[in-house]
Amino acid sequence: MAEIAVATQLYGWTQSLNFPNRPPLLERLDEAFDAIGRAGIENVEHSVEMAANDTFLNALARHGLGFPSAYVGGTFHTEPEAEASIESIVAKARVASDVGVQVLNCNPSPKPDGEEKTDAELAVQARMLDRCGAELIALGIRLALHNHTPAMRSGGREVHSNLRNTTPTNVWLNADFEWIRHGGGDPVAFIEEYADRTASLHVRDAIGTQWVQAVGDGDMPYPKIAEVLKAKHFVGPLAIELATDPTTEITRSFEENHRISREFVQHVFGA
User: Fold this and answer.
1) Looking at beta carbons, which pairs linking 227-235 to residues 24 or more positions away fall under 8 Å?
2) How many CB atoms within 10 Å of residue 221?
3) Dihedral angle computed from the Cα positions of residues 54, 199, 149 and 90, in that order, rounded to the nearest 10 degrees
4) Residues 144 and 106 sit within 8 Å (Cβ to Cβ)
5) What's the pLDDT tens digit per position in 190-224?
6) Is 130 among the domain residues?
7) Is residue 1 part of a domain?
8) Fewer Cβ within 10 Å of end Cβ, the chain: N or C?
9) How far apart are CA 233 and CA 164, in angstroms?
10) What pTM, to 2 d.p., does this model score?
11) CATH code: domain of residue 95
12) Angle between the 119-137 and 79-98 helix axes, to the nearest 10 degrees?
């Protein structure tokens, strides 16, 4: 049976409180990747553009790290912008598939003013996401939808629309449990409804909505979430996504927080 590929999402490695980013991360990849390996993590997740970046790919090879999932953006709720997004994402996916990327995690762009999308805009978005997902499946890559707080408004209206109005084999969920709860949702209820549609995970911990420094330090209901996923034989990539906000108390190194988080996901998710 396939095993869950555990990664670190490299966003946190660009935050100066975690890993001082002068010079930028791309100039410190060996240092970061050494720390990631020592923490027991075998994969990374980063933007899909890195699939065409020789500096990044060569560093992955030197450190024996995999790249099973990548992050991509796109606008889908208006047709002209959606057409351009699909063309761009598919072109990048062709390159990414050659370096082992299996899942593209995508957060459909919110409206510039942050207001909720109209029913008509959500209908366009679902149709365009379905088309994008179908084109990616033909390349051997799953399109998995990520969310932040705007998509969770009105009881997760946008997230539910994206999934209920698309074809399950084309459009999947990138379950980011902290952002689901941050936006007012119940992460356990979400995974119970969409476990069969879940292609990848983002795992961060918090106390309430205050981010903590390592997975396992907070009160996210990960044991219950893992129980649901195990029953559905989930084997997609799991990215530990540690990050800080102004309230996060830092008492350990970023490497140590990853080691603690890695041990937690092994214990809880069996990964």
Assistant:
1) 228/188, 228/191, 228/192, 228/195, 229/191, 229/195, 229/198, 229/201, 229/269, 230/269, 230/270, 231/195, 232/195, 232/196, 232/198, 233/1, 234/4, 234/195, 234/198, 234/201, 235/1, 235/2, 235/3, 235/4
2) 14
3) 50
4) yes
5) 999 999 999 999 999 999 999 999 999 999 999 99
6) yes
7) no
8) N
9) 22
10) 0.96
11) 3.20.20.150
12) 20
Identify which of 163, 169, 165, 167 has the alpha carbon closest to the alpha carbon of residue 185.
163
Biggest alpha carbon–alpha carbon distance for the chain:
49
Domain tally for the chain? 1
**Does the bond joining 246 to the residue before it have cis omega, within 30 degrees of 0?**
no
pLDDT band at 2 (very low <50, low <70, confident <90, very high): low
Which residues sit opposite 6 in a β-bridge?
238
Coil, strand or helix: which one is 34? helix
Q: Name the strand (E) or helix (H) holding 71.
A: strand 66-74
| CB environment 102-123: b (16+ within 10 A), e (fewer) | bbbbbbbbbeeeeeebeeebbe
